[in-house]
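Blinded run. Sample ID left blank on purpose so nobody reads anything into the name before looking at the predicted structure. Input follows.
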Amino acid sequence: GHCCTHPMDGFWDLKREKRGTVLSATILLLICMAVNAVSSLGTGFIFNKTELESYSIFSVLYIALAVALWTICLWCVTTLMNGEGTGKEILTAVGYCLLPLIFANILVMLLSNTFSLEESTFLLYIDGFAYLWTGFLIFSATAVIHQFSASKTVLVIVLTVAVMVILVFIGLLCISLVQQFLAFVQPVYSEL
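Blinded prediction complete.
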């Protein structure tokens, strides 16, 4: 909670005094995934857009993939830009940054079962505030862990997002090539 309420001081303690652990960050990531899954199923029927027939528990894996991709890309970019943080510190900080999303998902899920459709704006405000708060925490964590100024932090975040987009594009391209290769090999194999 200290990282969420006092981000600069909390992330300084996380880096310099080793107050955070990868285990606790991983637990927070798993809790975030579990809360997201429960929220997808437990949101009030008026607000729930999830189709239960096609819902899979693996649909929450995008959170872990996004955290892993962010950690790897941020580490790569900050290594090239003389950042002081390690991959372990980045992963730990990102895990702690997910705390507002956990609380917001729980609150929105509970309130969605009591609110009417006219009050849905409040749920959007809570959700939006949680995402803004998480973004600010990630910005603060990047600045403190790597000892960057505000302008360099913005540059690093923009570069990290660009690297993430490039990696996702290359990954999708590889998947498409493998699918096309298998589609070519399967008829040849069946003919042989």
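Unblinding after everyone has recorded impressions. The chain has eight helices and no strands.
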